[in-house]
Write a structure and sequence with these properties.
With 311 residues, the protein is mainly alpha-helical. It contains 13 helices and two strands; from the N terminus they run αααββαααααααααα. The chain has a two-stranded antiparallel ribbon. Helix 5 runs parallel beside helix 10 (215-244), helix 7 (135-156) packs antiparallel against helix 8 and helix 12 packs across helix 13. The model is unreliable at 1-24 (pLDDT under 50).
Amino acid sequence: MNVFFGLFLFLIPIFLLLVRRGRSSQSLPPGSFGIPFIGQSLSLLWAMRANTAERWLEERVQKYGPISKLRLFGKPTVFIFGQAANKFVFTSDSSMISNQQVQSVRMILGDRNLLELSGEDHKRVRDSLVSFLKPESLKQYVGKMDGEIRKHLEMHWEGKQKVTVLPLMKRLTFDIICSLLFGLERGARRDDFVKYFQEMIDGMWSVPVNLPLTRYNRSLRASAVVGEMVIDLIHEKRVEFEQKGASSHQDLITCLLSIRGKDNTQVLSENEIVHNVMLVMVAGHDTSSVLITFIVRLLANNPTVFENILR
């Protein structure tokens, strides 16, 4: 009798927990969290590698509707689709919805980047980054970009019967980033940046398991190296700006260092400059290189369009 009574007392908390979970799950959207911690991360990554991510998303909408739950990169996630969802995301204030990236992105880029901030902090950092794009600054950037493109074509395209465009566009994009963000000339230092930057972004969209030999672990270590390299550049640019009178428009780091508040103190902390420089590096790299690759493909497949543009 005592055995059954003890077993009864043991099962009551489990029963109540299951009932509570069942009730709370009724308010959640349809779908499944999948395998603990991993969830649907691997299937999404495989779809992205196979260039079928759009089909993956469409199949999810067909199966569960415009709102569903899943688990991505270790976190419970709600997937929403459609015009109403877009309006909700982009018009809600920070009291309803806030920026937060998956753990792998946050750990690699840092917690003071623009995607992680909200409210006044978000506005302060956003306004600082936008100041880099003033009309008087853009005039200088066009000249720098033109020089990088001419040098790139001379080194990698002239005299070649065949070129593989995407890898070259990634290198060109990174060379332009080094020039505009850091004022960094060609050489061993820029080559080191390319090496560690590529390792860093390779693990951004991976399952955040920080174990030796995993892609995420390599990405974290590369991120630390890139961060130290950016800090060294910040110290150099601060000396150039404060002691040698360098122009505040010469690169992004100098521009951010030059921004002062009403009490003449620096608006952004060193960590904020590092994290947001790394964010701009990542945001501008793949998007630009892929876009330019598609433009080259369009011109190669449409000789008439190419001739009209050339003329």
